[in-house]
Give the backbone structure.
Amino acid sequence: MKLPFMLSCKSATQLMEKAHTVGLTRKEKWQLWMHTKLCDACRQYERQSRFLEQLFQRYLGMQNPRSPAPPDDKLEARILQKLKERS
Amino acid sequence: MMTETDANQELTTWVHLYARDLYYWALQKVSDSGLAEDLVQETFLVAAEKMHTFQQRSQPRTWLLGILKHKIADHYRATLQKVPTLSLSPEDLSAFFGANDRWRKETRPEAWDAQEELMDNQAFILVFEECLNKLSAMMNACIRLKFLAEKKAAEICQELGVSSTNYWQLLHRAKLQLRACLEQSWFRH
């Protein structure tokens, strides 16, 4: 059964993204809340979407604890060469 | 005031101390070894020009990272400027949603095992990066730029000349694709 005020899964997941970007109206907030309350798949999606955001934040953002780089003398030599050519 | 010889010596020391580190950092952001090296090289060239503005009390690594960050962000801006604004509009989502715009049976999200522990799992992060690179160049650049430049979505939209509606629809699509790729290459592997 489809209730007229119920969002589709497509709209619900779109609204989650809209919420981050421009925010939701009261009606949209209520609709989204209602939908995720009833839809297990969209609850999972929301959780996974938050996880993706955390990954973006951590791996694409400025703070980034990357494991130490293996030595590469050639890389350094090439950069020093470039610096020399400059002058 | 540093003399030029001093500055050159200092710079050489920095290359030995930080070049590899910067390179690996850049590699993570751009996923292309040639490009990462070019960007690091350019970073040191900029540093050489601006050596006189370097405050002795600041950390050289932080200062260099700042330059590198701008270089990478400029690279993604240039990528995005090359694509017509039209391609930033949402596409068909019927691969994910079927009748009545409900999840298709094959794409219906189910819980991911041990999701929280994956944040530090190197093997998983590699798969995540691969999946990220499978997105269209434009989507990939959009996401990377947003997180690298640490800007609010609204500012990024303005900068890229995208409407905010197109922007969140774009992110929605990117996440759907990324999810599908991770499921295929990791969770159901």
User: Anything to note?
Assistant: Chain B touches chain A through 60 residues (CB under 8 Å). The helical segments of chain B are 4-30, 33-50, 60-82, 122-134, 137-148, 153-160, 164-187. Residues 178 and 184 of chain B are 10 Å apart (CA to CA). Chain B has seven helices and no strands.
